[in-house]
Amino acid sequence: MSRPASPSFYEFFAGGGMARLGLGAAWRCAFANDFDPVKAATYRDNFPDAAAHFREGDVWALTPADLPGQADLAWASSPCQDFSLAGGRAGLAGGRSSALFGFWRLIEALAAEGRAPRAVVIENVAGLLTSHGGADFTALCGALAAQGYSFGALEIDAARFLPQSRPRVFVIASRQAPPAGLTGESSFHTKAVREAHARLPAELAARWIWWRGEPPPRPNADLASLLEPDAAATWHAPARAERLVALMAPLHRARLAAVQAAGARAVAAVFRRTRVQAGLSVQRAEARFDGLAGCLRTPRGGSSRQTLMVVEGEQVRTRLVSPREGARLMGLPDSYRLPAAATGALHVIGDGVAVPVVRWLAATLLEPLLAAGPAALAAE
Hints:
Blueprint: E1 8-12, H1 18-23, E2 28-34, H2 37-46, H3 50-53, E3 54-56, E4 73-76, H4 99-112, E5 119-124, H5 135-146, E6 150-157, E7 167-174, H6 191-199, H7 202-205, H8 238-246, H9 250-262, E8 266-277, E9 280-288, E10 307-312, E11 315-320, H10 323-329, H11 342-350, H12 355-371
Parallel strand pairs: 1-2, 1-4, 2-3, 4-5
Antiparallel strand pairs: 5-7, 6-7, 8-9, 8-10, 10-11
Helix pairs in contact: 10-11
């Protein structure tokens, strides 16, 4: 039986549909789901066909009957709070990240019906590799293996594609043996990935796939190139900018002074963080002048909303990153429709996956893998 020309996919924890945008128009979305009303509304606003396949609600409320046919790929960008430092590292026992197993029970049920997706991608924060001393990652690998998948992981920082530092782990699992050209060395086999692999018991390590692939050359765009014109922005009062500078530790004050001495316009991304110094918790403003934004967060995240600092000689101005600028930092086109409220827009953006990273994964690994045909895995 011939397969359709367009690979199909299910998108769980779809948010505003950023994985769908990254996969691209050549892919066909058979089903998408998210429980968050703001994200669901954003998804519907950006995809006219959403009524045919999008289901708003808790993943635990879904049944296999809700999922049509047999998808080539299941993508899951599950809630990350319980794997992050900001979420207290609760791991898979945490209420939010346990949604991952709400998704996985559906994959198990599909497998029992002979409808398991040929490939699965699970995207999460880097803490997935180390949560509970690596036990959570081992449990995830065990669940994949039990359903006939072999798997590997790549740790990809979106800074290789966009002017935003956003490291994420992508676990790529396949029920078919990958072609030889898809395995080998990769700079995305970070120390954390290699250590996670080394912790696996032998029976799971035997199912490991070292996915290969190098990113394209670093983009020419930097943070400054994605910003709105100065005249269109809402700037802080000078006193607020002065307070932010006063919160800088000596190292960051020195960096600012060096930029001021150079005289040219410079743009920095600034976060306020709590640091322990001499046994005391103090708030510090930390600026980076390397052309990258820090990792975008949701408004309820563990770090404060990101601030921009624009330096021109002695003048220092500050303002918040706008939702549209945040969308650009995720690789979203200006045609992408954001929620009208800034908090809602930043919520959708901060919980999303960087679009160019998904496109790279699709072009480099997923599309060649699925085009190769359903050859059986050697290790069963």
